TrEMBL record:
The organism's place on the tree of life at top rank: Bacteria
Organism: Halodesulfovibrio aestuarii
Keywords per UniProt: 4Fe-4S, Electron transport, Iron, Iron-sulfur, Metal-binding, Transport
Domain 4Fe-4S ferredoxin-type: 60-135
GO molecular function: 4 iron, 4 sulfur cluster binding; metal ion binding; oxidoreductase activity
InterPro entries linked to this entry: 4Fe4S_Fe-S-bd, 4Fe4S_Fe_S_CS, Cys_rich_dom, Helical_ferredxn, HmcF
Cysteine-rich domain segment(s): 338-422
SUPFAM superfamilies: alpha-helical ferredoxin (SSF46548)
Protein name: Fe-S oxidoreductase
């Protein structure tokens, strides 16, 4: 079968196509069609020839098969140290074979690659820290996902997520009208409690432009309100764009390179239009990676930087606490033992562990590190799209065991997770293993303990 109705090489291009794919519950027809999908070996070979350049060729060739990457991989560890879960084996047996055979592979092989690329690697990049040659398997798996996507071999949920970005410029079906209505609704909902609270839209030349994860206005609008409250308390001159507010990129998880470029360019256009002094992204790891780390290259920016300085939310919180824009009431600090989840995408891949520890020094009396910690911490177990793929739920739930054991070892019942994927994985971890923990973003915790300036307090009745 050259192309299926749902499983094919054509990206989602309209709302109708997106709704049709969503109607295939669980991807039942989609995955049946994938079994019959033809591999265009000539196109695959040409793509590899054009895009698989010297760095990846070198990494594939210099791998010494020493196995030092094995114990760095949490998926290898939770799967009884299966040799097939060693990162070097996983990439050599998939991308390595694709390159060696110049794309002349079977449908069965491509489906095997799908299973490995999306259920045996979260692209957390931890293995690269322990490779004596500096080989980055995470980067290679991201590349492999793009190669597979080009041939229509991508998990159902990932094609949907990528399609959402193409249709709505967001990972969920939040239109511009929905977004603006949510901003107005949240400002109205909280203005009585917080006098003068606003969520300014399209304010030019503000000090801060704030960008979000679409899950917030779609499912957790109070997160937007909490961000607004904290900016309000800190006296920030800020805004959100009416278009270009969505920072995340499920297209990155899907390997849809063209959609990655489309998504990040929508954010950059908002920056260029509104001219903020800097941009702050929400508590999301992959959103930061997509807009700040990878995004400039997708957008073809030669300096490798966004159009304005762009920081993660933890950097703003640390700065606000350090400079006194936000002040913590000592009596309201977290008294119980509390631990912190380090997001792979902004801690390991962007070095922000210092900022998160600075925050903990202000808000917690009994902060306990996970072991290992900082850039050595393990993935939450659900990154890289793993959380959202129903076909691999059993494998994902097993992957959560490493984080479960890390949390249990701290003795903490409260876990702070300033990242959406981490937050979701830890929530699901508790649902699956019932270890009696709670989890939270930073925003709601901060609001409970920040000292409200006198001029922002409610009038006494």
């Amino acid at each position: 079968m050259p192309q299926g109705t749902f499983c094919n090489t054509t990206p989602i291009g309209s709302e109708e196509e997106l709704k049709a794919l969503l109607g295939d519950k669980g991807g039942a027809q989609y995955y049946e069609e994938m079994k019959e999908l033809d591999v265009d070996s000539d196109a695959l070979g040409a793509l590899l020839e054009k895009t698989c350049q010297s760095r990846i060729h070198t990494w594939l060739e210099i791998c010494a098969h020493c196995g030092m990457c094995a114990d760095s991989c949490f998926l290898y560890r939770v799967n009884d140290r299966d040799p097939k879960q060693v990162p070097a084996y996983k990439i050599q047996s998939t991308l390595g074979e694709l390159v060696k055979k110049k794309g002349k592979v079977t449908n069965e092989f491509m489906r095997h690659c799908v299973d490995v690329a999306w259920s045996q690697c979260t692209c957390c990049n931890r293995c690269g820290m322990y490779c004596p040659h500096g080989i980055d398997m995470g980067v290679m798996f991201s590349y492999l996902r793009g190669v597979l996507n080009s041939q229509g071999f991508v998990p159902w949920e990932m094609k949907i997520g990528s399609g959402m970005h193409r249709v709505y410029n967001a990972q969920m079906d939040v239109t511009t009208e929905d977004w603006i209505d949510t901003c107005e609704w949240m400002a109205e909902e909280y203005e009585e409690e917080w006098p003068g609270l606003e969520i300014p839209i399209d304010k030019e030349d503000a000090d801060i432009m704030y960008t979000l994860n679409a899950r917030e206005p779609k499912h957790y609008p109070e997160d937007l309100a909490e961000a607004a409250i904290l900016f309000h308390l800190a006296g920030e001159n800020w805004t959100v764009p009416s278009v270009g507010w969505e920072q995340t990129s499920l297209a990155m998880f899907a390997g849809d390179w063209a959609a990655c470029k489309m998504q990040v360019e929508s954010v950059y256009k908002a920056i260029e239009r509104l001219r903020p002094k800097r941009v702050i992204g929400t508590e999301c790891g992959h959103a930061h990676r997509a807009t700040v780390i990878e995004g400039p290259y997708w957008a073809g920016r030669e300096d490798g930087l966004p159009p304005a300085p762009y920081i993660h939310y933890v950097e703003w919180v640390a700065e606000a606490l350090r400079t006194g824009k936000l002040k913590i009431d000592p009596e309201k600090k977290i008294k119980e033992p509390v631990t912190l989840q380090d997001s792979c995408n902004y801690v390991r891949n962007h070095g922000l562990a210092k900022a998160t520890r600075e925050i903990m020094s202000y808000i917690a009396e009994d902060f306990r590190e996970m072991g290992p910690k900082r850039e050595h911490n393990y993935c939450c177990g659900g990154g890289g799209g793993f959380n959202g793929i129903g076909k691999y739920r059993k494998e994902r739930n097993k992957a959560l065991q490493t984080k479960r054991d890390q949390i249990l070892a701290t003795g903490c019942k409260l876990v702070i997770a300033p990242c959406h994927n981490c937050w979701d994985a830890i929530r699901d971890l508790e649902e699956e293993y019932e270890i009696g923990i709670r989890w939270s973003f930073l925003k709601p915790l901060l609001i409970k303990m920040v000292i409200v300036p006198d001029h922002l307090k409610l009038p006494e009745e």
